[in-house]
Write a structure and sequence with these properties.
Elements lengths: L9 H23 L7 H7 L2 H11 L10 H13 L2 H14 L1
Length: 99
């Protein structure tokens, strides 16, 4: 259980995480600026899950396979990718703490 994330899918996941983050910033930020102040943080937190879910389901990218197979693995992969560059930071911090 040491390598929960599939190492062969990791480079693709990192690229997709950055892509989803950049797409959200470019296309959705102007739209969310029109929302009331109390809704903006929620939409910006959960909004990137939609494009990430579309990408993971359409490509079948399951970062947690074989540990978590099927739709649950795809859904969790979408959540990881939706985190954007936080995925990169989390992985590098974890790797640094193991050294």
């Amino acid at each position: 259980m040491e390598n929960l994330i599939n190492p062969s899918a990791l480079p693709v996941a990192l690229a997709l995480a950055i892509l989803v983050e950049r797409l959200w910033e470019y296309f959705a930020t102007p739209a969310t600026d029109q929302l009331p102040d109390h809704l903006r943080p929620t939409v910006n937190r959960y909004g990137p899950v939609l494009p990430a879910a579309i990408i993971t389901v359409s490509t079948g990218l399951n970062l947690l396979d074989p540990a978590v197979p099927g739709l649950v693995g795809l859904a969790l992969s979408a959540l990881l990718i939706a985190g954007g560059s936080n995925l990169v930071h989390d992985l590098t911090q974890r790797k640094g703490s193991q050294m």
